[in-house]
Amino acid sequence: MIKDKRLIPLLVLLVLGFFVYSSAYIVKEGEQAVVFQFGKPVGNSISEAGLKFKIPFIQNVKKFEKRILEWDGDPTEIPLEGKYILVDAFARWRISDPQLFYKSVMDVSGAQSRLDDIINGIVRDEISISELKFVIPNTVYNGKYDNGEILEGEKIESSDNKNIVMTSDTCIEGATSEGLIDGKWTKGTGKLKSFCDVGKDKGRQSIVNSIISKVQDKFVSEKMGIEVVDIQIKRINYTDAVRSSVFIKTRSEQDVKADKLKSEGLQIAETIRGQMNKKEKDLSSSAYKEAEKIKGRGDAEATSILMKAHSKNPEFYKFYKALNALEEVVGKDDQIILTTESPIFKILRTPQVQ
């Protein structure tokens, strides 16, 4: 017995405090909790933050993350069309039902293991049944290969040598340097949002959407209490062993295309050059004909003038003809010997003073 009765209230307070401390617990923001009694969940999961209570010694509480968690898988080699490609994916997930979550995987570590198995398996299956050109669209832009990265520019060519034109939310095949923006065709515009094929929903984003849908269905069917919020492919490319040979092949294909374009350009240049030469000859011929016509008219007019002059003054005409003959015969420094009876001498002779 307690001799000092003043200690009884203190002991009662201590016992009550211990029971309160043992029964109270706090659920923080970003947390959710499940109350267990003899190893089995009791009641509904607790998702609201605040001070909560349980029966001490009989019940215990386990807390789980309510925030979105991350999963980052290891890069995986997947065979596709005789080549090995490297796929690196990541996901965001959350615990949607703590009771099912604890029952199926117990904790985050167990969940990560199941995520590895399910996501990697579905990614492998979806990539394996896809066409290589939609998984790794080797587009060419300004002479550089982007290996599937998103580009923006005037002309983009797919790996099957078909030109595509991007619009604000889709792509149209069979044209270049054009874009359909807000319902209007414009030159040199357009943004590449995803690689797609008209009439076929086989683009990379479609593959990702299919992966997300199948992963979500898998977790729902297995009742794990896990919700996959998003899955994205962080990196997808040929493996190192394949990449160099693919680049060599692609470069060879582009060299062939470049040689073809160069040959076509030379042919066009020769055609233009031939047309210009023909046009030049035609112009020269026309100009020569016109010049001959003008010269003929001039000679005719000169002859007409001389004839008129001869008819008016025959002596002057003879004098003029003699001067022309002398000019043609005698050079600048020439010396000539003339008789006094020569017509030319008579022209050059000093006239006698009458």
Describe the fold and architecture.
The protein is an alpha+beta fold. It folds into four domains: 7-65, no CATH class; 70-241, Band 7 domain (Tetrahydropterin Synthase, Chain A, 2-Layer Sandwich), CATH 3.30.479.30; 242-307; 313-348, no CATH class. Helix content is 46%, strand content 24%. The chain contains eight helices and 16 strands. The strands form six sheets. Strands 6, 7, 8 and 16 form a four-stranded antiparallel beta sheet that branches. A three-stranded antiparallel beta sheet has the order 3-2-5, with no helix packed on it. Helix 3 packs across helix 5 and helix 6 (240-312) crosses helix 7 (314-329). The chain starts with 6 loop residues before the first helix and ends in a 6-residue tail after the last helix. The relative contact order is 0.08. The model is unreliable at 138-201 (pLDDT under 50).
